[in-house]
Design goal:
By secondary structure, the protein is α/β, with parallel strands linked by helices.
Length: 271
């Protein structure tokens, strides 16, 4: 039986919570923890200050083979086995807020690579640790602004604080539309500025640079986010000669909360 651990550290600026995801992988049809798994999980918990731990969520998964009912039960058994081990080793029951079997993870239509390896990573349990808020310094990045200014340099980035997307979606929310209306007025005020609209995504594995758009079912989510902003600005009578768009996938995370990477930024290309 193989054992892996995976950590994802996600930060929110100013008053921040840190989330860690610890993943354990299982052989086909197995849910009991073996010696390597218990040793690894025990070592992981020993180095943590559990007094700062706010909550734990445990999610079990299976690969795509087998009947749905069987996979749901197996994924639940995997989650319960991890829960039981944590309780036996000093984790308080009250902070374990979720124990859920998610069933099977279906393979994507455009999947490429070693299917056996992909399935082995789908037979897992994710232990999501949510830590209590800590105070972090606000991220300071030269050339990064939250609105369009009177004077800019080529390469300056406009980070739109209120322009976010739902997970897996490129559709503009009402809040996003309100934000774009303000941006369009500033674009009209400073007609010399040209922009590249850059779409971004979050929460995909490193080897998946782009995500699937739930509407088109194609792996083009960051492109579609940029495109939808582009189309809306055209509707607001911003000249297409001043605008280009591009999808950058997951290549430029902000290092804050993952929801903040479901975003679009404006980059000054000409002044």
């Amino acid at each position: 039986m193989r054992f892996f651990c995976v950590f994802y550290l996600l930060f929110i600026s100013v008053s921040a919570q840190e989330t860690e995801v610890y993943s354990m992988f299982f052989d086909t049809n197995k849910f009991n923890l073996d010696t390597n798994q218990t040793k690894g999980l025990l070592e992981f918990t020993k180095v943590k200050d559990t007094s700062l731990l706010e909550s734990i969520q445990i999610y079990g998964y299976c690969d795509d083979r087998g009947k749905e009912d069987y996979n749901f039960k197996l994924s639940t058994n995997r989650a319960n086995a991890v829960r039981d081990f944590l309780l036996e080793n000093g984790i308080k029951n009250k902070i374990i807020v979720t124990i859920e079997g998610k069933g099977r993870i279906l393979l994507e239509e455009d999947i490429q690579g070693d299917l056996a390896e992909i399935r082995s990573k789908n037979r897992r349990v994710d232990v999501v640790l949510q830590w209590k808020p800590v105070v972090l310094e606000e991220l300071k990045i030269p050339g990064l602004y939250t609105s369009i200014q009177k004077e800019h340099l080529v390469g300056d980035r406009i980070y739109l604080e209120k322009l976010f997307f739902e997970s897996g979606s490129s559709r503009l929310t009402q809040k996003s539309v309100n934000e774009l209306n303000k941006i369009a007025l500033l674009m009209q005020r400073y007609p010399n500025l040209h922009f590249e609209i850059q779409g971004h995504i979050c929460c995909t594995p490193k080897h998946k640079k782009e995500a699937i758009d739930i509407d088109t079912k194609k792996r083009e989510l960051s492109v579609n986010r940029a495109l939808n902003v582009y189309k809306y600005l055209l509707k607001r009578r911003i000249s297409k000669d001043r605008l280009t768009y591009i999808g950058l996938g997951n290549s430029q995370p902000l290092g804050k909360d993952p929801s903040m990477d479901r975003r679009v930024e404006l980059v000054i290309t000409k002044i």
